[in-house]
Recover the amino acids of this structure.
C-alpha cells in the first residue's frame, strides 16, 4: 500500500514537473531555478531505486548492502521542501535565512567562541583539578563541548552534568551566557522574518488580483 501511494505521488510530481517544463518560456532558466532543482532531487531517487531493484533484485546482497541506494532513498525528504512552492511560511523562512546570513554567521561565531571557553573550563574543573573526584563525562574538551551546547541552548538532556561546586557554578554562568548570546542576533532575525512575511503576503495578494483581473478581461 505504501508503495502504491509513493508511486502515485511520484507520478503526479513527475507530470507536474514535465508540464511546467513544457510551458516555460525559458528552458535554461527553468532548470537553474532552486525550487525546480529541488523537484528533480525529490523525483530522481525514486526512479534510480526502481532501476536498481529491477537490475539487482529485491533481496539481493548488493541491494541490502548498497549505501548508495539508502542515500538516494533518504533524498526523498526533498518532498517536504516542495511545499515551499505553495506554502508562504516556508518561503518566508527561506527568504529570511537568505537575508540574515550575516546574523546567522554571527550567531554561530558567538556559540563557537563560548563553546571553546566553557568546554575548556569545564574539563579543567571537572577532570583536571581534583584527581580524587574525576568526572569521566568531561574526559576531554571535545566531550565537554556537547555539555556546553545543550546548556547554552537550555535543552539540558541530563546525560552529563558537573558534580563539583565550581563546575556547577560554571554551568549556571554557561546557561545565562547562552540565553544572552542567543537573544542578541535572534531579535534582528525575528524582525527580518516579519518583514519578509508581510512582503511575500503582499506579493501573493497582488499576484492574485492580477490573475483575477486577467480572468475578468
Amino acid at each position: 500500500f505504501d508503495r502504491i501511494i509513493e508511486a502515485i505521488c511520484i507520478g503526479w510530481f513527475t507530470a507536474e514537473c514535465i508540464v511546467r517544463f513544457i510551458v516555460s518560456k525559458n528552458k535554461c532558466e527553468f532548470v537553474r531555478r532552486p525550487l525546480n532543482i529541488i523537484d528533480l532531487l525529490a523525483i530522481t531517487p525514486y526512479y534510480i531505486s526502481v532501476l536498481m531493484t529491477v537490475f539487482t533484485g529485491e533481496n539481493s546482497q548488493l541491494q541490502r548492502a548498497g549505501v548508495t541506494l539508502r542515500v538516494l532513498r533518504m533524498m526523498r525528504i526533498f518532498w517536504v521542501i516542495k511545499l515551499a512552492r505553495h506554502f508562504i511560511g516556508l518561503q518566508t523562512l527561506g527568504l529570511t535565512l537568505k537575508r540574515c546570513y550575516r546574523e546567522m554567521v554571527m550567531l554561530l561565531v558567538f556559540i563557537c567562541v563560548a563553546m571553546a571557553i566553557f568546554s575548556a573550563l569545564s574539563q579543567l574543573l571537572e577532570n583536571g583539578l581534583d584527581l580524587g573526584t574525576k568526572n569521566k563525562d568531561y574526559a576531554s574538551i571535545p566531550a565537554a563541548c556537547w555539555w556546553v551546547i545543550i546548556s547554552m541552548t537550555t535543552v539540558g538532556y541530563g546525560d552529563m552534568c558537573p558534580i563539583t561546586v565550581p563546575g556547577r557554578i560554571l554551568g549556571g554562568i554557561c546557561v545565562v551566557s547562552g540565553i544572552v548570546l542567543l537573544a542578541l542576533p535572534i531579535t534582528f532575525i525575528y524582525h527580518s522574518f516579519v518583514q519578509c512575511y508581510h512582503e511575500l503576503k503582499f506579493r501573493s495578494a497582488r499576484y492574485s488580483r492580477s490573475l483575477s483581473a486577467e480572468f475578468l478581461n
Notes: The radius of gyration is 25 Å. The mean pLDDT is 79. The CA atoms of residues 42 and 75 lie 6 Å apart.
